[in-house]
Amino acid sequence: MEIFETFFNEIIGFLGISNAFEILQTGDYGKFRTFDGVVSLIYPIIPLLLILELILGLIYKKPDTKVYKVNFLIYVFNRFIGRFIAIAMVTICIGLFQSYAPFQTEMTWYWFIYGYIVWELAHFLYHYWGHKVRLFWCLHSTHHAPENMNLSVTHAHFFLEAPYADIIRTTVCILLGIQPELLFLIMFIDGTYGAFIHIGENVIKDARFGPLNKIILTPSHHRVHHARNPLYMDTNFCNLLNIWDHAFGTYQEEKKEIEIEYGITREMDSGNFLDVYFGEFAALFKDVSRAPGIKNKIMYVFMPPGWSHTGDHKTSKITRAEYFQNNPAYNRAIKVQQPGPINNNIVK
Predict the structure, then answer these.
(1) What angle do the packed helices 180-196 and 45-59 form, to 10 degrees?
(2) What is the annotated localization of this protein (predicted)?
């Protein structure tokens, strides 16, 4: 019976309905008008959309079963391995760095806007380095491995990526004065929206959202981010406010004439849990072991994916440069819409 109870609790936890279920049991429905009550109603939205997405996939005969299977295994594995690590990192960073902040924000609308802009900068930094540093790419590549986009991709992460991400994001936010209460509110909103932007075409075919596509980062932008097409590589690192992508020259809109190809450039079996989860580490270990000299071995760890000690680099900077050379019209478009220093040094 204990096994069934644990299984039931895991299902309730995955669906995000435990808090709402507790309120319903008390019979005090007025609690749904409180902050905790509203949160309890928001949490189940993404899991329920995921189930709807899977059902529609079966109806349309596009179930992406391989992607769902592997992402489900990753979710289960991470539940056992890294359940509390990220929370611990956030707590430690707050304790270490809050006293060094030059000022403290308050729970007001203008500090909320400030806090969200700072959070997006911190998220951009973590995400950008996750594509530009080979070791960090090993942590992040699991999220990019699926060859289809759907909400289950939200759960496809290496278990150490969340602690790495939260160390950077929390440290930046705390040092720039974001008080913990405001930080947790922003993390909740951004986490919910960050899951939503992975919604697949079975639910929303054209995810540009009209005029909003120019203001916020839409699922269309994030589909571009997950693409391995040369034009789309290493773009759209933000989560909700894409101001930092505009500022640093990594903004890219989806082109109707260019069909998105999901996945990573390394040859892999996206239906194999071990290859999806540990494949990049194995590839890095192989490169390091074969590299001559300690300097080259270290370079493989910290240089961008695709870097080679032989000089035969296959980084995204080179891949994109070759693509723009063969497609000058897109090269001009990129230069117009993506001014900024980072765009001139895109590497992967």
Answers:
(1) 10
(2) Endomembrane system
